[in-house]
Amino acid sequence: MIETIMLIVVIFVLSGVFWYSFFYQKEKKLLNRLQQMLDCAIDGELERTEVSEEKYSALENSMKQYIDSSFLAGKNQQEQKEVIQKLISDIAHQTLTPISNLKIYGEILSEVSNENQDEIATILEQTEKLDFLIQSLVKLSRMESGIIAVHSEDTTIKQMLESIQQQFNVKVREKNITLSLCDTDLHVRCDSKWTVEALGNIVDNAIKYTACGGNVQIKVEQYSFFVKIDIIDDGIGIEKEEIPKIFGRFYRSLSVADQPGVGIGLFLAREIIQAQKGYIKVTSKRGKGSTFSVFLPIAKKE
């Protein structure tokens, strides 16, 4: 009797070991196939294999269908980006000559005629606005499609600030605004050309929304991993509920509708800074001015 029971137990144990080994190997093969599918999808080399109808392969089939749809969606999205990029480039190319002609004829009319000066000034202003919009769209499109990429390297902040000061000398003189730059020897890791573009867009807004005789300051402070560049103005300020919206593409507050602009400068600035592993914070109070804090990775010492 005891021998019979022991025999049954041994058979039961061996049977359990056999089925455990069988299903373990099958699960292992399934997981390996799933991992291979994911690796191929990540590398952009998705393999087209036959879909099994076995019940055990339901997970594998579902994963394959999901990867297939994601792969095709990504491919379609990239194709759409390329079409948009080509369209914007074509528009920029086709409008270059008409916009240049409008500027030339507008300036000629302004010089030779003493009449309708307000209308001529409006035409020139709108032409400049159109030119700025098209150029900004081209930059944005090229950056988003990867045609233009940022190349970060060890860069001195002082050199970038001097470039910004030179860029806005005329504007600050016209509005009698004091543009104060701090003296600094700090270095950051960034693409100087694109970073000057981003900082310049923020400074341009600060000057635009600061009254004549006001002040715009640029201060620099070092942290453990970042350098903070503060652009401070005593202008009109921003409502608290509007702060999350100001970096949206083409967003313009109704309170500044009378000011020139297309609402793309801050969006472009944020894209540039984020592409360099930095970020932007804003503090502001209506009627009291704003502070845009740009955080850039500190340059590592060799």
If you had to describe this structure to a student in words, what would you say it looks like?
The strands form two sheets. Strands 2-4-5-7-6 form a five-stranded mixed beta sheet, with helices on one face. Strands 1-3 form a two-stranded antiparallel sheet. The chain has three domains: 1-56; 74-145; 153-297, Histidine kinase-like ATPase, C-terminal domain (Heat Shock Protein 90). A hairpin with a 3-residue loop joins strand 4 and strand 5. It is built from seven helices and seven strands. It has helices at 2-42, 58-112, 117-144, 157-167, 169-174, 192-208, 265-275, and strands at 153-156, 178-181, 187-190, 215-222, 226-233, 279-285, 289-297. The model has no long low-confidence stretch (mean pLDDT 77). It has 302 residues and is an alpha+beta fold.
Domain module tally: 3
Alpha plus pi helix count = 7
Cross-sheet strand order for the largest sheet: 2-4-5-7-6
From the helix content, strand content and strand pairing, which structural class follows?
A: alpha+beta
User: Which CATH C-level class of the largest domain is it?
Assistant: Alpha Beta
Average of per-residue pLDDT values: 77
Over all CA atoms, what is the radius of gyration?
Answer: 30 Å
Output the helix-strand order.
HHHEHHEEHEEHEE
Helical amount: 55-70%
Q: Any low-confidence stretches, pLDDT <50, length ≥5?
A: none
CATH architecture of the largest domain: 2-Layer Sandwich
Q: Give a count of the beta strands, DSSP E runs of length 2 or more.
A: 7
Main beta-sheet annotation: 5 strands, mixed
CATH H level of the largest domain: which superfamily? Histidine kinase-like ATPase, C-terminal domain
Beta-strand portion reads 5-15%
End-to-end distance? 81 Å
Pfam family, one: HATPase_c
EC number: 2.7.13.3
Subcellular location: Membrane
Catalytic activity: ATP + protein L-histidine = ADP + protein N-phospho-L-histidine
